[in-house]
Amino acid sequence: MQYSHRVIDNILVLTFEGDLIGENHGPELVSLANDHINDDIFYCVIDISNVRYINSSGIGVLITLLTKFRNKEGEVILVKPSKTVEKLLMITKLSSIFQISENVEEAISQIKKSVNQ
Predict the structure, then answer these.
(1) What is the DSSP string of 101-117?
(2) Buried b (16+ CB within 10 A) or exposed e, 56-70
(3) DSSP assignment of 7-66, as one string?
(4) pLDDT for position 116
(5) Is-above-0.85 flag for pTM?
(6) How do residues 19-30 score in pLDDT, each as one tens digit?
(7) Rounded Cα–Cα distance for residues 53 and 28 (Å)
(8) CA-based angle 33:73:71, to the nearest 5?
(9) CATH code of domain 2-111
(10) Fewer CB within 10 Å, N- or C-terminus of the chain?
């Protein structure tokens, strides 16, 4: 898997491509999230539109990221999971835990609306 990150309007945006195998990049993704949380960034958008497969460790990484941001009263929004990943999220009941958006712009807009309420 490859990933990139950027900050837009005080929101961490992660973009994943390939297969999300948690043991490969999990610790560095959690460390990256911690660094941004320490910089008072409590919202995260994860673009998984180009993720083909997620294993159990990858699911663990997503749950860990969600927990870290929610512990700071923040949120994580997943962007456009593929059909395969969407089925996995439904089977594991994670589709009811994660917010899902169609694109990064929509996810950022959702976060901004929830922050301004």
Answers:
(1) ESSHHHHHHHHHHHHT-
(2) eebbebbbbbbebbe
(3) EETTEEEEEEEEEE-HHHHHHHHHHHHHHHHHTT--EEEEEEEEEEEE-HHHHHHHHHHH
(4) 78
(5) yes
(6) 988 777 889 999
(7) 19
(8) 60
(9) 3.30.750.24
(10) C
